[in-house]
From TrEMBL:
GO biological process: methylation
Superkingdom of the organism of origin: Bacteria
Organism encoding this protein: Streptomyces gibsoniae
Taxonomic lineage from the root: Bacteria, Bacillati, Actinomycetota, Actinomycetes, Kitasatosporales
Molecular function per GO: methyltransferase activity
The keyword Transferase belongs to this UniProt entry's keyword annotation: yes
Protein name: SAM-dependent methyltransferase
InterPro entries the UniProt entry points to: SAM-dependent_MTases_sf
Length: 287
């Protein structure tokens, strides 16, 4: 991969900001998000998501997790910010209201906060809340913002409803951890707070307790990252958002170059890139 290819997704032509968020959103939807399907499916299997499930997804991103739940017959509501370019892609996939083109369950996409996702009059409370966002960067913002969003969302769910939080597994089980360190190395000190991989095994539990939720089980899921070539791998990793601070703080071409170099150990003889990763999810309960 040449730096020029990476640069196509790092810069607006001759203008700031350096991150082309629309291109990043498309790369996330077309390249990266599918890597998390095993996580989504494992959670839905364990919780028997299907007809009768009323799902509220915080930080719904480009909507693939919603589409999978709706295809099982669940009624789904996704919440996101219009500032996140991925929300527009979720609307394309599922439609703002009603049924998506490939969905069996009713679908609603909400631009705003959980408070804007109050069930329509006469509809029962949500039976499941999910926050898959941290597995795909900070779709719900920092820890304090996530706590606030959960506080706003849990009153919309029935008592005892499961709340799913997800994140990276142990760094030693994630090949991508070494690649993500490039982001920290190149970015300014503020980027270190992003912590692409959790610092401790109890991070999800701590988040749940702070939000007033009761942990009630967890699991780990293998989510290997596989790409057709190094350029696709660079685009996919950049689309997570973990490298945005590095791009803004340094030469964008340098970010692409060093990211490609970090991916080299995971390149196979046929040119494909393969990184073994484990993600972890926590099931908590609404009190």
């Amino acid at each position: 991969m040449t730096p020029t290819l990476a640069g196509q997704h790092l810069l607006h032509a001759g203008a700031a900001p350096r991150v082309d968020r629309r291109a990043r959103a498309r790369d996330w939807a077309e390249i990266q998000e599918r890597m998390l399907v095993p996580l989504y499916e494992a959670v839905y299997d364990r919780l028997e998501v299907g007809c009768g499930t009323r799902l509220l997804a915080l930080g719904c991103g480009s909507g693939l997790a919603l589409l999978l739940a709706a295809s099982r017959g669940a009624e789904v509501t996704g919440v996101g910010s219009g500032a996140d370019e991925r929300l527009a892609l979720a609307r394309e996939r599922l439609g703002p209201v009603g049924r998506g083109p490939r969905a069996r369950g009713a679908v609603r996409i909400v631009d705003g906060s959980p408070r804007d996702a109050v069930p329509v009059p006469g509809a029962p409370a949500y039976t499941l809340l999910t926050v898959f966002g941290p597995a795909g960067h900070t779709a719900c913002g920092d820890a304090e913002s996530l706590k606030e969003q959960l506080a706003a969302a849990t009153p919309l769910a029935r008592r005892g409803a499961p709340v799913v939080l997800a994140g990276w597994g142990p760094p030693e089980r994630c090949s991508s951890a070494s690649v993500l360190r490039v982001a920290v190395k190149l970015a300014d000190a503020g980027a270190e707070a992003e912590r692409p991989c959790p610092a401790g095994r109890d991070d999800l539990e701590e988040t749940a307790w702070r939000a007033g939720l009761r942990p009630d089980g967890s699991g780990r899921v293998a989510c290997p990252f596989g790409y057709a070539d190094v350029d696709s791998a660079v685009r996919g990793m950049l689309s997570t958002g973990f490298f945005d601070a590095a791009v803004e703080a340094t030469d964008p071409e340098q970010v692409g170059k060093e990211l490609a170099e970090a991916l080299h150990p995971y390149r196979r003889a046929d040119g494909t890139v393969w990184m073994a990763n484990v993600f972890r999810y926590l099931i908590a309960r609404v009190p």
